[in-house]
Every structure is written in structure tokens, then in C-alpha cells.
Amino acid sequence: MSNVNEGENQGLSRTSKQSVFSKITEKVSEGLDHVAGFIDDKVQGLKGEQESSKLANVGHKTVDALHSSANYLKTADADQIKTDVRETIKRNPERSLLVGLGIGILLGSIFRKRG
């Protein structure tokens, strides 16, 4: 009897984890879309020569990358994301380290401002 209950608890725990993961990925994807919209507005506001400048090109590429990332988070499951992150880190360890450092600095500054 206890094995049945343990199985049910594990099932609920997995369902709870999936629910939390879904909420997190939804919030992150919404945030990415929001930032992409903000950048797009700024790029669209460039005038004259600035419109075709390197800055505008980088802005458009950044917007596309952010939207692509948001769509990925909306459609991928936890196992797929975990596998993709591991593969990316193996292929690009230096870049992954720098990205992790940047995220840490960003989160640190956000939490420092709130505290």
C-alpha cells in the first residue's frame, strides 16, 4: 500500500514541477517579448542615417533573437531545454561562462535594488 502512495506522491511532485516550470518559462518568455518590443520601439525611433546604421542592424537582430528565444521557451519542454543547454555549454564553454556571468551580474543588480 505504501508503494502506491509513494508512486502517487512522485506523480504529483512531477506534475507540480512541470506546473512551476511552465509558469517560469511563461514569465521569462513574456519578459523577452517585452524587452524585444522596447528595443524595437527604440530602433524604429531612429532618424535619418541612424536608421541604416550598425546600431539599427544590431537592434533588429537582437529583437529577432529575443522573439525567437521567447517562442522556443513557449514550445519546448523541460527535458528539451535541459538537453539543449547542456549541448550549447559543451560546444561553447567560454561563451556560456560569459553569459552566466552576465546573467549573475544582472540578477545581482536587480535584487540589490529591491533589497
Can you give a write-up of this model?
- Helix 1 (2-44) runs antiparallel to helix 2 (54-75) and helix 3 (78-91) packs across helix 4 (93-114).
- The longest helix has 43 residues, at 2-44.
- The protein is built from four helices and no strands.
- The chain is mostly helical and 115 residues long.
- The model has no long low-confidence stretch (mean pLDDT 82).
- The chain has two domains: 1-75, no CATH class; 77-115, no CATH class.
- It is globular, with a radius of gyration of 19 Å.
- Helix content is 88%, strand content 0%.
Q: What's the quick description here?
A:
With 115 residues, this protein is mainly α. The chain has two domains: 75 residues, no CATH class; 39 residues, no CATH class. The protein is built from four helices and no strands.
Distance between the termini: 48 Å
Gyration radius from CA atoms, angstroms: 19 Å
SS field, number of helical segments: 4
Amount of beta strand: under 5%
The coarse silhouette is globular
Largest sheet: none
Oligomer: single chain
Low-pLDDT segments: none
User: Secondary-structure element sequence?
Assistant: HHHH
Going by helix content, strand content and strand pairing, the class is mainly alpha
Give the number of DSSP strands: 0
Total domains, how many?
Answer: 2
